[in-house]
Amino acid sequence: MSTRTVREKQTPEDAVRSVNNRFYAAFESLDLREMESIWSHDDRVQCVQPGWELLLGWDEVRDRWARIFKNIKRVRVAVSGVFVRVEENVGWVSCTARITSAFSDSFDEATVQAINIFVQRDGQWLLVAHHASPLPTPPRSAVQ
Amino acid sequence: MSTRTVREKQTPEDAVRSVNNRFYAAFESLDLREMESIWSHDDRVQCVQPGWELLLGWDEVRDRWARIFKNIKRVRVAVSGVFVRVEENVGWVSCTARITSAFSDSFDEATVQAINIFVQRDGQWLLVAHHASPLPTPPRSAVQ
Known about the structure:
Oligomer: homodimer
Strand order of the largest sheet of chain A: 2-1-6-5-4-3
Number of helices of chain A: 5
Helix content of chain A: 25-40%
């Protein structure tokens, strides 16, 4: 509503929203180093891809992203319906992501409902859990 | 490994695991009052049922459970693969739930991967987010 200096006035919710944006930007860039910088590298991080079971621990999670990034040629992610909640040093984001992926010989479009949990360590918000579930494409909200 | 007095030695992880069990027991009992007692009644609670979009706020979430409880005649929930993480006053559980439901004229079996986030208020852990996504039935882990 008013002009402001982001650095001065950034709330914890702003900071969590910002790192959530970085997560999807890292996905779009297919840059594994950038994706690595978003996550906590501990053995309790969790990742659920749409329709898949839980991956537990940084090694499993990193391997999955490396495989995804290797297989996808190009990807675009449109994020909407972003809802942020912060409770002390834990913050999470619920959002909808429409993911358009190009592979070497095919093309895929998917809409997911995601929840991403971040923990603050030394002033930095790190992703510790990503859980995405499939939604119909186009999403129900677009046709209701 | 050793016998112990649960009340004396209960860790925050034990407490979160326990309320997560109560959540699924409330679902099985189809007792709306019990389900109400598990949740925080605030306008930022979130609920994603398998394949559905986000419900936001206690009124929406309560209405959904009331409708589910009205439609289901009997339900059994088998929870497995439980993983608990606590960071100060926020704890979350990832688990797999196999849900067998009987309706007035049909029968349904579903397996979901869920994440449930709890926040501690005045010593009580309250559910603030439930996100469940569909998995194949039988789950992949059973046939791999």
